[in-house]
Amino acid sequence: MTAALSLVQGDGFEPGASMRRRLAGFVNTLxxxxxxxxxxxxxxxxxxxxxxxxxxxxxxRAALSALFCSRQGDIARFDELFAAFWRGRxxxxxxxISASGRxxxxxxxxxxxxxxxxxxxxxxxxPLKGPGDGPADGRGRRGGASAHEALATKDLxxxxxxxxxxxxxxxxxxxxxRMRARLTRRDRLRARGRRLDLRATIRRSIGHxxxxxxxxxxxxxxxxxxxxxxxxxxxxxxxxxxxxxxxxHAISLSFRQSEAFLFHTRLAHVxxxxxERDPTRALDRLALMAQGIGGGTKIGESLAAFNRWxxxxxxxxxxxxxxxxxxxxxxxxxxxxxxxxxxxxxxxxIVWLNPLVGWEGxxxxxxxxxxxxxxxxxxxxxxxxxxxxxxxxxxxxx
Amino acid sequence: xxxxxxIASQLAEAGYVADRDxxxxxxxxxxxxxxxxxxxxxxxxxxxxxxxxxxxxxxxxIRMQCYEGLDANSALYxxxxxxxxxxxxxxxxxxxxxxxxxxxxxxxxxxxxxPLLASIRREKSxxxxxxxxxxxDEEFEAFLLELLSDxxxxxxxxxTISARSIPRVVLTSNGTRELxxxxxxxxxxxxxxxxxxxxxxxxxxxxxxxxxxxLALQVARMVGMLRKEDLRKNPGIAETLDWAATxxxxxxxxxxxxxxxxHDTLIALxxxxxxRARVTTEVAQRLLGKVA
Lengths: 398, 292
Description:
The structure holds two protein chains of two kinds.
Chain A: H1 2-6, H2 16-32, H3 39-49, H4 57-68, H5 72-86, H6 90-100, H7 113-117, H8 138-153, H9 162-190, E1 195-196, H10 198-205, E2 217-218, E3 226-232, H11 238-254, E4 258-263, E5 267-269, H12 271-274, H13 279-289, H14 299-309, H15 311-314, E6 319-324, H16 333-346, E7 349-354, H17 367-372, E8 378-381, H18 385-389, H19 391-397
Parallel strand pairs in A: 3-4, 3-6, 6-7, 7-8
Antiparallel strand pairs in A: 1-2, 4-5
Helix pairs in contact in A: 3-4, 4-5, 5-6, 9-11, 9-19, 14-16
Chain B: H1 4-13, H2 20-32, E1 36-39, H3 46-56, E2 61-65, H4 72-75, E3 77-79, H5 81-90, H6 98-105, E4 111-113, H7 115-120, E5 127-131, H8 138-150, E6 152-155, E7 159-162, E8 168-173, H9 181-186, E9 188-191, H10 197-207, H11 213-227, H12 237-249, H13 259-265, H14 273-278, H15 281-290
Parallel strand pairs in B: 1-8, 1-9, 2-5, 5-8
Antiparallel strand pairs in B: 3-4, 6-7
């Protein structure tokens, strides 16, 4: 390899060991920018440097791009990094590009000091300790049960104090886990021996002189329900958002297949941030991804963006789309109508949870809500834990 | 191995107009012996790449269409059950022992090869096209990954079959499901976009040699503009070719001279009712004004 590398000449590429060092530097830059580059890829890149494609920077770029990129979004980023690193513009710029994807934003999401002081501030990294975790004597338990009861019907806006909040979240997590257990059990029971497995049947029949009376069946593989949650994080939802974000986090961790999105004036795909186990770190990453939260709402536009960029990938035949929003849309109702119709065509069920439904005397009269309602399978309230718990049975039937 | 510079011209001979990045990627497939993963919207000609590649290397194209529920049985090999049953019945009275019968019916002549097994048992390296890998299940993807790294297959009743020749593997994906990182890492990656106007015109001329060059350019421009119209389904290259053939067949030489024909034949491009309603006569007129 060294001999081969030392043959490389021209266009600013130095031969031999220094060339390999530069390649190692480039690989490090790529890794820093989030590219998954393994040893095999690095070795192949070294081979490419020794081949005729390395004669010209343009062909080397095309070759390394095919090797290192693995999705469409990588390509533009790779080109920038390549230009910065190999074309003499120096390391500093490359470092800047690689860091730009992760730079902390000034606007943080419910994690600043102000949020901590407010009643609805999220309990950062507070241990999830429900009332049931109290002393193990009988009185403690009883107290826990009644506290649970009160908590379950309390409006989510009025959940004060980190203690109560943590208990509510623990409840939500239990709920999400229960939903999953229920679903997989149903699948297993239903799928029993529908197709004859010829290969196994013949194999078994040899022992009986070719008489296939010991039949083998194939079972259908259960396909778990996938939950796609779109959470409205606009100003009008502010009082509920912090709880719902935690609920979303619990869902992302406990559902085998789930995708999460936040929207306000635009849409952000936040699944990867929510897969972080530690709630504080998850929220930190979320804050970076969803800037400008708490402003106006463009539900129609956000859903259209969802359809355009994500729906094809995240929705399959057993998908339930859950929208958590109050339906106050500042955009065109016609746009929302079209977006909802498009989602309707793809997925199995649309659930719209509106925290205002639990309010006395609420009518879904907002224009956005009116436009969306015809396409919704289940329109329910989500103003307290009980209303969320009622969902379980609905989801289990899908 | 074909030199990199020659690949583009040989692809053109095989009826495929490739851009520079794609020909580099195809050359690298051979140089690094890695599979190539091609992503892109429906209709950009992903499958055609594999067909053209097979022509360039003058070898067989083995195509495996993926679908939900595709399992190792139907992708790798299957026993010929009917023949096996017959063979068992035929030997019933002959007094052959169970072991003899077993050795007989699990031999090569009862084995039916499916695409993956076929691709490693050819004398000359074929092109293996794994089409729409995103439609298969995650489990199948993992299985495929194993095959792509070892190129050998173990059949429990039969033994291990190792590759006679390593196939050139092309995988395509429409992005209906996120592929695993392991598979992406293993493969070279190329994102195939809709061709620009010049390349699309070149494709039309290559595939429909009798068409007028200026009409080909007009068609390419018109289709290029339609793709920017935010349609529900963007017209693919096959649709472009259909439309160009239609217009040429109707004797159109200059699209601006026959706006009504142009509008009526748009059904070759627009395949949903919504898109059809969207491109009204006025819209078509407006676009026609810009094709000159």
